[in-house]
Task: structure prediction
Amino acid sequence: MALNEATPMRADFHDELERLQQLVDDEGKLVAQALRSATRALVLQDSELAEEVIAFDDVVDLRYLGIEEGVQSLLARQTPVAVDLRLVLAIVHVNLHLERMADLCVTVAKLTRLTDGLAVDAQVVRALGEMGARADEMIAVAMSSFQERDIAAAESLVELDDLIDAANRRLVRRLLERGADPGAREWGMRMIVVSRCLERVGDHAVDIGERTAYLVTGEFREFGDASHPPA
Amino acid sequence: MKTRSETSLTPARDAAPSEGLLSQPAALDVLFEQRSPAEAEPLEPVLEARAVTVRYGAAVAVSDVSLDVHRNRVTAFIGPSGCGKTTLLRTFNRMNDLVPGAVVSGRVAYHGVDVNGAGVDPIEVRRRIGMVFQRPNPFPKSVFDNVAFGLRLHGLKDDLSGRVEEALRRAALWDEVKDRLGKNALGLSGGQQQRLCIARALAVEPDLLLMDEPASALDPISTTRIEDLLRELRSQVTIVIVTHNMQQAARVADLTAFFSVEPTGGDEHERGGVLIEYGPTEQLFTRPADRRTEDYVTGRFG
Result:
């Protein structure tokens, strides 16, 4: 579009962009809520709450689609450039990462329901509860760094992610050592997947941090390099 | 996710073509090359402006601008009204000579020759550095005579009709006017008139073409044709375009210069046009280096 001096401020456009950012922030809160409930259902063996988490995913999906429609409409009409363009692209990515996190919460909830009645290892359950709390903290840090355009906070996600990764590895080791009792083995295998889901939530939070850095600097850069670990 | 420079999946440019996953980065290379073939060629300055300042009486129109115009590139000048972009453009072929009270200082060198130097003929400067204006301004003559005008003026009279046809073809107008060459040019549509003016400028074979908002008085379809034409012409002629339409600059220009109105002297009230940022168009529209550029291209200026 022609931008001439007669219409100096693209006020409507920037309001619209701000609304989109607000919708993503809210989506982050919804996902954190899903994660907390999924973790709680897991720790308390609460199948009813697990059902609620599964149903709640529709709320997140609706928000996800609404944001995507908003982005499509904005791109079609407003031709964002420079920092505005980078924000729109970051919103596309962050939106997808949040939606994926919510799906991981659904998987945790489904596994909680599936293992209803099986004997649990209280120490493992406690460790999974801590991983859930860490993942929740990572969502909070990722979303506030995105809102505040805070690269330092975004980069701190790498350290938090290292902790959750290490917890995942410890849990997998412990679960693999479980006895030959079929019930205990099934529970253990399900919990390996739960642990993996919580660990993946952390990875998505790091990806949101990377998008924050891209938004601020205009250069995409991976914080950590999982494919090429340091020697 | 990997950035391309880090990934081992990226084959070398000259690697043998491969199937599947490995071939995909190569396909991307092709895509980018097609988008911008000229970027492969090194930059070669055609015109060098050094410390150019233009005053109209006491007012500074444009202050201390230094930049190079590069061969076979489209360069866009953007910026708010009063930023001096048109004034600067007009120094390149001495159009400001015709403005009473205009004083140009600094140096404009075309292929190393100072266009304002002693013994330089402004008519010859304007043959080599052509100009197209905002409003189509054909002469009230036939289509043919409009294009032939400059050729006759410069004594290029051999094969006149061949040269006229060639210029009209280069301006993507030939098919529309070949059966009405004797008709008055004022009967053409606005978009056709503007392409006629481009043909008139091209006829005398300039190697630098200056365009001052060439599409701002045209409808969207005519504008698209002019923009397509610029992309085609740049392989033959270097183009500088002043435009108020930032998306037009984003679409057609290889390089973009952003000008703004800034204080130019010790006195806060003394303001004039200043060059803020000049670089690849894509960079200006994705990650500009200067905050003022960012504010302008995103519409956050008031």
Q: What stands out?
A: The longest strand of chain B covers residues 45-56. The domain at 41-139+207-297 of chain B is CATH 3.40.50.300 (Rossmann fold). The first helix of chain B runs from residue 23 to 35.
